[in-house]
């Protein structure tokens, strides 16, 4: 598990290899990840959008931007946490992801970024 705290918001990421799949006549490696967002600040905040950089050792970097996470824009009061699971397909056994969440602080009205640390995506049988 990897963790990082930005402006009182703690991000924790846990990953799993889910297996191989054929898609468009090509093998893909499926990974899931669970992200937990914990609000250690004194203010209520809301996640409004996300930005991902997906690194695949056999492909170009893929950039993904979108509103919220899994169709939601969670609000976290001080001391609250929110967790969700998602996943991605890679064309290789090794990759990584990193990114950030855009958030708004309800007390100040200001937008800020919360960084998601780089996390590895690796098939266990492919490690040396």
UniProtKB/TrEMBL annotation:
Q: SUPFAM superfamilies attached here?
A: ApaG-like
User: Which residue intervals define the domain ApaG in the entry?
Assistant: 3-128
Give the GO biological process terms: error-free translesion synthesis
> Highest taxon of the source?
Bacteria
UniProt xrefs under PROSITE patterns: APAG
Protein name listed in UniProt = ApaG protein
